[in-house]
Write a structure and sequence with these properties.
This protein has helices spanning about 15-30, 55-60, 75-80, 90-100, 130-155, and strands at about 1-10, 35-40, 85, 105-110. By secondary structure, the chain is of the alpha/beta class. The chain has one domain (about 1-155): Rossmann fold. Helix 1 (about 15-30) packs across helix 5 and helix 2 crosses helix 5.
C-alpha cells in the first residue's frame, strides 16, 4: 500500500478536497486497493468538523465523492505515510518543523506534481474567505496535481 496524506491549515477546505479528488483519480485508474489516502490540518481549529460546504458543493458538482471529518496531523503520522503533501508554504514549514527525524514520509508541496509552467505558483490558495470561484480554482489545481502524483507513484512503485 502507498499511503498519501494531504495537509492544509484546518482540514475543512483544501486538504479534504485534495483527498477526495486524489481518491477519485486513483479509483478511476483502478488502483484503489493499492492506496491509503487521508487528509489533515496543521491546526486543531476544526477537529471533527465536516468539510466546508463550498468544498462539498464543488466536489458534488464534479461528481467526486467527499466524506471526511477534520483531524490534526501528529508526529506519529510521519511514520505511517509515504507522502505528506502540503497545500502551501506555511503548512509545509509547519510539517517540516514537527516531522520527527525518523520520518519516512516525503514531505513536500502537492503543487510539485504538475505539468511544467501550468501554474505560476505551486500553491493551492486558501479559499475560505472568498467565494465559490476559489474552490473551483482549487478543484482544477487538485485535479491536475492528482494526475501527475498518481503517474509519479505508479512509476516509482511499478504498480
Amino acid at each position: 500500500m502507498v499511503s498519501v496524506a494531504f495537509v492544509c491549515l484546518g482540514n475543512i477546505c483544501r486538504s479534504p478536497m485534495a483527498e477526495a479528488v486524489f481518491a477519485d483519480t486513483v479509483n478511476k485508474a483502478g488502483y484503489s486497493d493499492k492506496f491509503d489516502i487521508d487528509s489533515f490540518g496543521t491546526g486543531a481549529y476544526h477537529i471533527g468538523d465536516s468539510p466546508d460546504s463550498r468544498s462539498v458543493q464543488t466536489c458534488n458538482k464534479h461528481n467526486v465523492p467527499i466524506n471526511h471529518a477534520a483531524q490534526q496531523i501528529k508526529p506519529a503520522h510521519f511514520g505511517k505515510f509515504d507522502y505528506i503533501l502540503a497545500m502551501d508554504r506555511n503548512n509545509l514549514a509547519n510539517l517540516q518543523r514537527i516531522a520527527p527525524k525518523s520520518s519516512k514520509a516525503k514531505v513536500q508541496l502537492f503543487g510539485d506534481y504538475q505539468r511544467k509552467s501550468r501554474y505560476v505558483d505551486k500553491i493551492v490558495e486558501d479559499p475560505y474567505y472568498g467565494g465559490i470561484s476559489g474552490f473551483e480554482k482549487n478543484f482544477e489545481q487538485l485535479t491536475e496535481f492528482s494526475k501527475y502524483l498518481l503517474d509519479s507513484i505508479v512509476k516509482e512503485y511499478d504498480l
